[in-house]
Amino acid sequence: MVTRDDVLKALEGVQDPELGGNVVELGMISHVRVDGSTVDVGLALTVAECPLRNQIEGDTLRRVRAMPGVDDVNLHTTAMTKKQRANLMSVARRKVRENAEPTQVSPITRVIAVSSGKGGVGKSSVSVNLAVALAKEDFKVGLLDADIWGFSTPRMLGADDRLLADDDTRLIHPLEVQGIKLVSTGLIIDSEETALMWRGLMLSKALEQFLQQVSWGALDYLIIDMPPGTGDIQMALTRMLPQAEMIVVTTPQRAAQKVAIRVADMARRSHMPIVGVIENMTGDVFGSGGGAELAEELGVPLMASIPLDSAVVEGGDNGIPVVNQAESGAGQALLQAADKLVTLVPPAELETCTGRIAKLLAALDEGAA
């Protein structure tokens, strides 16, 4: 049975994008009440008409609804009192003084982990095409190939340059290709035939380096192509990027569907919301319907059913993502998946209520000095 502490732990993943703190430590959760499988949450915003109200409310609902044992969530949003706002800004200032940002990924960036329970379901193709599709809509997009052993995104994007570091900052610059910022181990080794014989600890350390030592800059979305399964990299991601959310990729057959449930279970145990399910390789060979069944079982939307299409393979081999091929049915389905993603997880607005309050209080402090 879910407890109040469980709910508060899950809500630590809901970030105020500009202040960089979560809604629990910032004092924005006024109450949590649990009655069986129903959870009531009180959310106190800095002002009632905060521009980020929809985003913060949506993130709060997704976090709690993703918890095992929760069937219904009632969210009550109010405006903070002057005292609550003062306490919030006190916490925010202390965080700025004491805590350097742990990664180079801005808290305002929407982080989407594209995951699967096993390999061979087309997860990397989905990641690449989602990233390119979002870039085609003029979003600022990064793509992190966290499938350290099975890196394939450089070939799929026709990228063969190397990653370079800035001599002054010592930060790595992502490779800019097809409108996105790309980082992959395939861009730092001698060739794509090189075998990486790394143990689990080295894999998570590589992910840490990609998040802490890459100059990602301002991004609307960071798409992360995850390795299959539920290992060290998945656990490191939830620790380092608490704002991350997951898309589960599966093929239609029941065997793949049941394996995919495992990665969804890992996400929920780590308080990571599941955005939706994408069914890949739909068609006569693999059948259809498994993605819809998985989505229903998880209580999330089916974002797309991508037909089995040879253009996906050809495009991946030649560095031409299928979303750039107007005649492809798979390309059209992936474009629709990207549109659905933007609807489900909209990009954060840059100018927030809390940011304006911070500037106002800073100005008042300077005036009093």
Return the CATH architecture of the largest domain.
3-Layer(aba) Sandwich
Instruction: Based on Cα principal axes, name the global outline.
Output: globular
User: What would you give as the CATH superfamily of the largest domain?
Assistant: P-loop containing nucleotide triphosphate hydrolases
**How much of the residues is beta strand, in percent?**
15-25%
Poorly predicted runs of 5 or more residues: none
| Rg over CA atoms | 21 Å
Q: State mean pLDDT (0 to 100 scale).
A: 84
Write up this protein.
The chain is α/β, with parallel strands linked by helices and about 375 residues long. The protein folds into 2 domains: about 5-105 and about 350-369, GMP Synthetase, Chain A, domain 3, CATH 3.30.300.130; about 110-345, P-loop containing nucleotide triphosphate hydrolases (Rossmann fold). Helix content is about 40%, strand content about 20%. The chain contains 12 helices and 13 strands. The strands form 3 sheets. An 8-stranded mixed β-sheet has the order 8-9-5-10-4-11-12-13, with helices on both faces. Helix 8 (about 255-270) links the parallel strand 11 (about 245-250) and strand 12. Helix 4 (about 125-135) crosses helix 11, helix 6 (about 200-210) runs parallel beside helix 7 (about 230-240) and helix 8 (about 255-270) packs parallel to helix 9. The longest helix is centred in the N-terminal third of the chain and has 17 residues, at about 80-100. It is globular, with a radius of gyration of 21 Å. It starts with a helix and ends with a helix. The model has no long low-confidence stretch (mean pLDDT about 85).
